[in-house]
Amino acid sequence: MSVAQPCYDRSRLTPGIVHIGLGNFHRAHMAVYLDDLFARGEDHDWAILGAGVRPADARMRDALKAQDCLSTVIELDPEGKRARRIGAMIDFIAVDPSNGPLIAAMSRPEIRIVSLTVTEGGYFIDPATGRFDPSAPDIVADSAAPDRPTTAFGAIIAALRNRREAGVAPFTVLSCDNLPGNGDAARTATVGLARLSDPDLAEWIDATATFPNGMVDRIAPATGPRECAMAAAFGLDDPVPVTCEPFRQWALEDRFASGRPALEKVGVTFTSDVHAFETMKIRILNGGHAIIAYPGGIKGIGHVHDVMADETIAAFLDRIETDEILPIVPPVPGQDLDDYKRLIRDRFANPEIADTARRLCFDGSNRQPKFIIPSIRDNIARGVMPEGLILASALWCRYCYGIDEHGQAIAPNDPNWETLTAAAHEAKQNPARWIAMRAIYGDLADDRDVVAAFADALHLVWSQGVDAAMSQYIANRPDRARHS
């Protein structure tokens, strides 16, 4: 099988971007767009310098440096796999506990964008309030020692300080993480942390740097022996290949402090309506992941395509998305929401991806407030009690109990697993205990109708089982208008 190689002279590339967090998603998404752009013979001064702030990033650096920073990307189309080598990254900055090499690289004038994939929970923002959390231990440490930061945002601030002192324009901070208002979140984290040690610098950053919002989308599962074997089948000895679905999408605000590559030439949508794209994706796709993952996990189903082959779970997803999610998603330019919903179902069902329910279940304490609870709130605002979404949240609670329906232990799968498991055990007898987690549910804990609906849903799950609970919701289309 053939492997597509970069069709441009990589020796002539020069860096314009530092990317922090060289996980699978970045290498299957942003790096691929830039590779496509470079293949057109354009913008060769926008190559990527990889970077990281965690010990695991050092291992990724070693693996990629050993292969000249090339990444293998294998598209898992059911009609046939395609492999290519992505050459958009030309070096990987040394990973250091105090981030000195990273700060030095970001201080260089030719670096005009610093992009990030540091996970949804890496922005130090309280999920219930949307406010910066100055009490987070890493933030406290960075604010006390701003010259030796351990976080990505601390390093960004240190580099921006250097640039201001040198009279160099600020770079754009471009979040590529999958969270609502990712650019706004990056601004909040950067300015919030800077304000703790240098208020004047914080004001300069807020006034001069830019933090565009963007919607990113591509499913790129974790790499394991299966993925390495795929690379080997293409004749590649690569310990860190990336597999992904054929689909990809990126919508961005056109707000860049020091210029940008012409990504619109390779399929990126620049729009002032990023929020609409973002809401569509987060509510339908990411919310859909949560809707199917927890019943799949409770039933002991390993792969996402097998979860979608479960007729009850598939029908559960369709009913919630049709009745409770599509009606609250605003119009998206050039997009039919029913078509998008069908596309999502097909993407979830792709057997080549072999994504796992466990991956989708991970970090519910951070993801539920972003992907499920806002849809609950929006339905309540339109006078509808969203029984399906509330049942989906009750299924998350049941999953966090830590034992599936076959009596098998569910391994810890959340940074707050012990707290969640304790709450789930209490909620079995007192469901209000779960909703009382205000860091997740906020003031929904004070809504008697929501608390009662959650209690009914969780009781049904425990008394009759997951399938019966979903089936009852699917079969019944009661008057769902809210009653106080």
UniProtKB/TrEMBL annotation:
Key word Zinc-finger present: no
Keyword Oxidoreductase assigned: yes
Entry superkingdom: Bacteria
Residues of the Mannitol dehydrogenase N-terminal domain: 16-265
Mannitol dehydrogenase C-terminal domain segment(s): 273-461
UniProtKB keywords: Oxidoreductase
GO terms for MF: oxidoreductase activity, acting on the CH-OH group of donors, NAD or NADP as acceptor
Name of this chain's protein: Mannitol 2-dehydrogenase
Taxonomic source organism: Hephaestia caeni
